[in-house]
Amino acid sequence: MRTLYVITHPEATHHVEGVVGGWHDSQLTPAGIRAAVSIAQALRAQIPHGTEVELHSSDLRRTLRTADEVAELFGVKPILDHRLREKSYGEAGGKPQEWLERRFVPPPAVGERMDHDEGVEGAETKATWAKRIYAAMDEILQSPCEQQIIVTHGGSLTCVVASWIKMPIESAGYASFRAPSGSITTLREDDFFHNRQVVSLGDTRHLDSAQAC
Fold first, then answer.
1. CB burial string 170-188: b at 16+ within 10 A, e below
2. CA 36, CA 97: separation in Å to the nearest integer?
3. For residue 160, what is the enclosing H or E element?
């Protein structure tokens, strides 16, 4: 039985500074680091010792720092993959959120949403974003390892889950699987029917201990 644990990185500097994330290479805050420790401990408590584990991560500093906490407890090395990054917001990355909001063109309610131009120079379309994450997921799932951990971003979680349930990319324009920062989403495929489940979405119960510190 294959199980994927998908982590959305916890609080990063762009969250508290009110700037656009995307490919802007922000770092975890002290609170984010504490949360990353709690994430690693929660996963260690769920996954039996002696089980083979693979760890995949976006290569940005905030996800890599999160992955490092997991790697230490499991004794594995993160496999870095730039395709697991958040959506690129082009020239808006690192700028104040209000700068992006003044220029952003939302997708239409009907019609072309995947190749929609959001009005920001250099920003990825949802089609480009989804295709790279779908490709990363295809590669991750080629491994026979039955316990895999993926460290990614809040927005990219939608594409990870959509890929997992084999949602056609052309249908993903309306998909949105929301999860808080620092959450764990659990995905599982059974060995008999090979049905793919979303066991839990955006679980943050493990963060209670981090917030208490």
1. eebbeeebebebbbbbbbb
2. 25
3. helix 156-164
